[in-house]
């Protein structure tokens, strides 16, 4: 179960087709060799002065010319209905994602043709390399990955329920980096927090270890990027030789010393403003996407983007991030567009539109922002043949009727390796649950539908809460008992029992036909919480219910679980509610069932 503090705070793709786009004629390329034109071109760095013809041969850009290059080639007419040339630009590159499940398909279907994964399971790395070398595939984005990150014991990255190696001392750095390189990591990602940081979150490697890992990475011809969350850590990372910072900060306005160090050492920065803005200010997704009734957004996207605002964080802090990004841009620091999807408030691919919007808010022109999402990340991470419209490069590009603002990207036709992408924008359908009993505790603690009931607590986040389960089949009603202790200290402490839809916590079940969750409950008197998660949305919907010493029935309409996608519900958690002091509690759960819409 993944309930990270960073995910819940939001600190740490486009399922949209306009009506106009639906009316445009579909091009019909022959395999992945054709001529496209005439088109106006943004090549990733600049706008070309006149319309061009782009010749593609076997998935690569063969020539760029103001004249039709081959009279015998198949030509895809790329003019608008009024006769004006359409626009061609490189496919987007998301410089900060975490990719699993169908994330690469989702990214590609929304115009992200390449992405940089900055922490995921090392086992997938060989397949990623094979896929991105395949010039015939048009089913997913190409992914470069850091694989396992570098972190301290109990540091950030260890809280997700999977065992990963950790760094104990500078002396281990060389072997640690060599092990990541042997696994197939393309870049080394380091989690670091300075001892001078204003606030402390999770344990961090030392500054000496930071320097040792960066030096080891460079000796082994790998770039080293550093996850930071505040200015003191950023300065330490730059002075230690980091190639890039993967996040920015809003604890304070950027200092002249840090600006000068970033510029003089040519360190790039991925501000990931989207994930911060969603948590701290929570306006942009609604203004740009959710309130636009003309956009056909998938429910999964609406759920992921709609409820990430954390009222505990003053919204005024976000202005520091805007001003810091503005100052870095004005100083000539390389900025890369990255979303940190699928953290709370983000959606693979779709959030790139928001990141471009926020870069403009920080003072970049639209085409400067597009460079941050194409040529600049390709250069920063040395991605071969990506990020530009140039001879010899992959024919990964977007064809658009207009190119004046981020919203224009919604009508893009997407090409991968010279092939028109035909992937669905909607996530795959999940099996439907049935109305009726979800559990029969007279027989087993295994649910009748879904994967398992299990004790759950914040210990996975290095919290001090605890929970244990006891099956009580002989009681009336038969029940599942939770003996727990909720201990304050984390931003979101929890302890209780979780129901999961599948062994893979990222896979859900379709609850669309279900109107109500009902259950019997008794226990220690007080207010408890029901948390509900759906796929791709790491921040839960949350409702409270009261518990008494006597059995009572609770009914929760699913319509009240706002901000999640009921067609992909993945987890339910019954948890004690936080209090100022630690509290022991007993919670007994019985007769968990689902009511269909027709039963209400």
Please provide a written account of the structure:
This protein is an alpha/beta fold and 600 residues long. It has a domain at 429-599: Sandwich (Jelly Rolls). The protein is 22% helix and 26% strand. It has 15 helices and 26 strands. Strands 1, 2, 3, 4, 5, 13, 14 and 15 form an eight-stranded mixed β-sheet that branches. Helix 5 packs across helix 6 (207-219), helix 7 runs parallel beside helix 8 (256-264) and helix 13 (350-361) crosses helix 14. The chain starts with a helix and ends with a strand. The model is unreliable at 1-30 (pLDDT under 50).
Record the SSE blueprint.
Blueprint: H1 5-9, H2 19-23, E1 34-41, E2 52-57, E3 60-65, E4 75-77, E5 86-90, E6 92-97, H3 103-109, E7 112-117, H4 125-133, E8 142-145, H5 173-183, E9 187-191, H6 207-219, E10 223-227, H7 231-239, E11 244-246, H8 256-264, E12 268-270, H9 273-280, H10 284-290, H11 299-306, H12 318-330, H13 350-361, H14 366-372, H15 375-380, E13 397-400, E14 413-416, E15 419-420, E16 436-437, E17 452-457, E18 466-472, E19 479-486, E20 495-500, E21 514-523, E22 526-534, E23 537-547, E24 552-557, E25 569-576, E26 583-596
Parallel strand pairs: 1-4, 1-5, 6-7, 7-8, 9-10, 10-11, 11-12
Antiparallel strand pairs: 1-2, 2-3, 5-13, 13-14, 14-15, 16-26, 17-20, 18-19, 19-26, 20-25, 21-24, 21-26, 22-23, 22-25
Helix pairs in contact: 5-6, 7-8, 13-14
């Amino acid at each position: 179960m993944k309930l990270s503090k960073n995910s819940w705070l939001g600190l740490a793709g486009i399922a949209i087709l306009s009506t106009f786009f639906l009316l445009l004629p579909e091009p019909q390329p022959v395999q992945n060799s054709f001529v496209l034109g005439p088109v106006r071109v943004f090549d990733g760095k600049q706008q070309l002065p006149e319309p061009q013809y782009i010749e593609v041969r076997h998935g690569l850009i063969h020539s760029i010319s103001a004249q039709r290059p081959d009279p015998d080639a198949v030509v895809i007419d790329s003019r608008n209905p009024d006769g004006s040339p359409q626009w061609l630009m490189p496919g987007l590159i998301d410089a900060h994602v975490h990719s699993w499940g169908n994330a690469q398909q989702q990214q590609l279907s929304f115009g992200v043709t390449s992405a940089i994964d900055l922490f995921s399971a090392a086992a997938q790395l060989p397949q990623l390399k094979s896929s991105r070398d395949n010039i015939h595939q048009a089913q997913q984005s190409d992914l470069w990955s850091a694989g396992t990150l570098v972190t301290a014991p109990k540091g950030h990255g260890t809280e997700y329920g999977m065992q990963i190696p950790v760094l104990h001392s500078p002396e281990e750095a060389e072997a640690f980096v060599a092990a990541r390189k042997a696994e197939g990591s393309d870049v080394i990602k380091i989690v670091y927090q300075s001892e001078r940081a204003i606030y402390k979150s999770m344990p961090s490697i030392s500054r000496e270890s930071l320097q040792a890992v960066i030096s080891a990475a460079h000796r082994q011809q790998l770039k080293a990027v550093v996850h930071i969350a505040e200015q003191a850590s950023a300065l330490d990372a730059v002075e230690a030789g980091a190639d890039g910072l993967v996040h920015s900060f809003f604890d304070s306005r950027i200092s002249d010393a840090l600006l000068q160090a970033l510029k003089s050492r040519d360190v790039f920065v991925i501000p990931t403003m989207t994930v911060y803005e969603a948590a701290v200010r929570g306006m942009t997704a609604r203004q740009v996407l959710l309130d636009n009734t003309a956009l056909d957004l998938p429910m999964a996207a609406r759920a992921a983007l709609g409820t990430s605002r954390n009222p505990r964080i003053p919204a005024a802090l976000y202005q520091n991030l805007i001003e810091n990004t503005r100052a870095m841009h004005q100083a000539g620091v390389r900025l890369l567009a990255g979303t940190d999807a699928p953290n709370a408030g983000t959606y693979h691919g779709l959030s790139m539109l928001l990141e471009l919007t926020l870069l403009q808010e920080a003072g970049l022109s639209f085409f400067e922002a597009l460079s941050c999402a194409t040529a600049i990340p390709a250069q920063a991470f040395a991605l071969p043949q990506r990020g530009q419209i140039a001879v010899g490069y992959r024919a990964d590009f977007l064809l658009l009727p207009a190119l004046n603002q981020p919203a224009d990207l919604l009508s893009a036709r997407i090409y991968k390796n010279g092939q028109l992408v035909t992937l669905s924008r909607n996530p795959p359908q999940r099996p439907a649950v049935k109305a009726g009993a979800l559990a029969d505790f007279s027989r087993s603690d295994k649910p009748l539908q879904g994967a398992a009931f299990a004790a759950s607590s914040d210990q996975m986040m290095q919290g001090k809460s605890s929970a244990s389960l006891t099956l009580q089949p002989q009681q009336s009603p038969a029940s599942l008992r939770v003996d727990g202790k909720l201990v304050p200290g984390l931003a979101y402490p929890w302890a209780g029992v979780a129901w999961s839809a599948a062994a893979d916590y990222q896979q859900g079940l379709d609850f669309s036909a279900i109107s109500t969750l009902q259950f019997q409950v008794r226990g220690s008197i007080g207010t408890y919480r029901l948390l509900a998660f759906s796929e791709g949305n790491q921040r839960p919907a949350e409702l409270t219910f009261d518990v008494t010493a006597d059995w009572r029935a609770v009914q929760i309409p699913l319509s009240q679980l706002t901000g999640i996608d009921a067609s992909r519900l993945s987890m339910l958690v019954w948890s004690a509610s936080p209090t100022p002091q630690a509290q022991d509690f007993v919670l007994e759960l019985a007769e968990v069932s689902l009511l269909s819409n027709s039963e209400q």
